[in-house]
Write a structure and sequence with these properties.
Elements (H helix, E strand, L loop, with lengths): L1 H15 L4 H13 L1 H19 L9 H11 L6 H4 L2 H25 L21 H4 L2 H34 L1
Length: about 170
């Protein structure tokens, strides 16, 4: 098999004129002496002649445009409509909003309101409340940061969906 592949490869190089003068003389010598080489050479010459005689069909100049027009006529639904369950998205949004509300309520009850009477008479009363009580815990800060990031992703998805709906209404 390797020998036949080698013969075919060397004969194609000879037919195409891509071999060196030494290889050319070697192939010509083998063609005169070896019947296997002559048979393969005749078969490859016939293939070469058939390839030269056949005209390759070129697509029309409007082929690409015709294909694209045919594709645009079909109603292609976005793949994500098949995979997104909006009830799950709503559930995740509800959990996110619930977590944010829990932290807001937690923050509200951790603030110490000090309504001490002002020493000086002022139109605006002094209210001393210390937010460091709420935000000094690392876990609270980590959860708040995570919730902010998730909220931004949710907002991005919501605005992207609204934009798509707006563009679809505008095009139809």
């Amino acid at each position: 098999m390797q020998n036949e592949d080698n013969i075919s490869e060397r004969l194609w190089q000879y037919i195409d004129g891509n071999c060196t003068p030494e290889e050319k003389t070697t192939v010509e010598k083998l063609l005169q002496e070896n019947s296997t080489w002559r048979e393969n050479y005749q078969a490859l010459l016939q293939v070469q002649q058939l390839l030269q005689q056949s005209d390759l069909e070129a697509p029309s100049l409007r082929f690409t445009k015709n294909v694209m027009e045919h594709i645009t006529r079909q109603n292609i639904t976005p793949a994500t409509k098949n995979y997104i369950n909006y009830n799950i998205v709503r559930g995740l949004a509800a959990v996110f909003i619930g977590i944010v509300l829990v932290f807001v309520i937690y923050a509200f009850f951790q603030v110490k309101f000090d309504f001490a009477p002002a020493r000086e008479k002022s139109l605006i009363p002094e209210h001393n409340f210390d937010l460091s009580v709420i935000f000094n815990n690392e876990w609270v800060n980590a959860v708040l940061l995570l919730n902010m990031i998730l909220g931004l992703f949710l907002l991005d998805q919501f605005l992207t969906a609204k934009k798509r709906k707006y563009q679809q209404k505008r095009h139809h």
